[in-house]
Design goal:
The protein is mainly β. Helices cover about 5% and strands about 50% of the residues. The protein has a single domain, classed as Outer membrane protein transport protein (OMPP1/FadL/TodX) (Porin), CATH 2.40.160.60.
Length: about 425
């Protein structure tokens, strides 16, 4: 491989699973909300106890404060607009990803008896990745291989099954907890978390099956009058090593592996709740990427040419939401969320396929009652355009003078769902 092309493997790293290629619209790789009520409130649901989906997603203790037992189902469709522009000397061009719509389903059931503990279960998509970047002779980064990256493809999905129970320690205080069982599948082309073949090319990696993982969650909830306070923690999700069927330079089978976990999440929140009029909520969260396998560690190659990590920073996010009940059957919501960026500007080159650079989210939503005990719920979120711009980086010489990689992203999300209470 010529010295002019030695920067290509580093770019390929960004296009593998570790830096997801389709934005999952949350804090880093995590989806920031579950269901249309949670989305309409800007993800501020650890304290407000709006419905089964958002409450079970963020705080198991809060399910005790739902208005009744409930079954809720939601579906989100994400449409991202991502453009990659690059230049190397006088040669420059730009390309737009073809991601299409990305579905995220979720379902939650909570049984809240008049006396005794509340219990429930949720099944949620917590992360989803899909991209298909075509080769582009007019764009230096995406020129056909071996001059550029050529076509890039990656896909992943993570689902979590979470049974939970909420126990009252007193009339005003509850504790909730439960295990989290995770199923994840990953595919990446090319795969740079293993050494390249003897011809210098990285193998593709197709998942052999869904892989298992596990963790747990714990929550506390305090309610007195209209005031609500809460704290919760989702442990790191320890995934079994992902195994893939790859190929060596001669086309013979090659087994590849990846150590990738989902990070610990800590949440605190406060809310003012008047169920018949106003609900105001604020959530703060911390995502510990610096100690999660696959994300932690510097984005450097070892002596064999395998990428050791992505160098992500731990981040803090904040969400605020408001609901106004207009009548017994109609409610409207608005929310705003801010996310720190786990990837600095100078690493734009490492994250060509998914810059994860969104920092602001604007959301609106509403519910319409259908009969006495059910409702149709809707929400829409807009992620305004953001961009990062950094140099092409050579693993030998560092940043390449006169080069640039710019990622630009804006996103639309539509969320629909139904709730049935009993």
């Amino acid at each position: 491989m010529s010295s002019a092309h030695r920067w290509l493997p580093l770019a390929l790293a960004a296009l593998s699973l570790g830096a997801p290629a389709h934005p999952v619209l949350g804090q880093g790789v995590y989806i920031s909300s579950s269901g249309p009520l949670d989305r309409g409130m800007g993800g501020a649901s650890s304290t407000a106890a709006m419905d089964a989906l958002g409450t079970a997603y963020w705080n198991p203790a809060a399910i005790r404060w739902l208005s009744s037992s409930e079954l809720a189902v939601g579906m989100e469709l994400i449409a991202s607009n991502h453009r990659v522009a690059s230049s190397l000397g006088s040669f420059a061009g730009s390309s737009e990803a073809s991601n299409g719509a990305f579905p995220i389903p979720s379902v939650a059931w909570v049984h809240r008896p008049a006396r005794g503990p509340a219990f429930g279960v949720s099944l949620s998509s917590v992360a989803g990745v899909k991209t298909n970047l075509a080769a582009d002779p007019a764009n230096p980064v995406l020129m056909p291989a071996p001059t550029g990256l050529g076509r890039v493809s990656s896909e992943a999905s993570f689902f979590q099954f979470a049974p939970m129970i909420s126990l009252g320690l007193s009339r005003d205080v509850a504790i909730g907890f439960g295990p989290i069982v995770t199923l994840g599948q990953v595919a990446a082309e090319p795969f740079v978390f293993a050494s390249p073949n003897v011809n210098g090319h990285y193998s593709s990696a197709r998942a052999t099956r869904y892989h298992w993982g596990g963790g747990g969650q714990l929550g506390l909830y305090y309610a007195v009058g209209s005031l609500r306070l809460a704290a919760s923690a989702k442990s790191r999700t320890w995934m079994e090593d992902f195994h893939f069927m790859g190929e060596d330079a001669e086309g013979a089978p090659r087994v590849l592996r990846l150590d990738l976990d989902l990070p610990t999440i800590l949440s605190v929140g406060a809310a003012y709740v008047r169920p018949e009029t106003w609900t105001l909520a604020l959530d703060l969260r911390y995502f510990d990427y610096e100690h999660a396998s696959g994300f932690k560690g510097p984005a450097t190659f070892d002596a064999t040419g395998a990428l050791g990590g992505l160098g992500w920073r731990s981040i803090v996010s904040a969400g605020v939401g408001v609901q106004r009940r207009l009548s017994g059957a109609i409610s409207v919501r608005a929310g705003y969320a801010y996310n720190e960026n786990p990837i600095p500007d100078e690493d734009s080159f490492f994250n060509l396929a998914s810059p994860l650079i969104y920092q602001h989210t604007l959301s609106v939503g509403g519910s319409i009652g259908v009969g006495e005990r059910s409702s149709i719920n809707l929400a829409y979120s807009y992620f305004p355009p953001e961009q990062v711009d950094g140099p092409i980086v050579s693993p030998i010489a560092g940043p390449v003078a006169g080069s640039s990689v710019r990622n630009t992203l804006h996103v639309h999300v539509v969320s629909v769902g139904v709730s049935a209470r009993y």
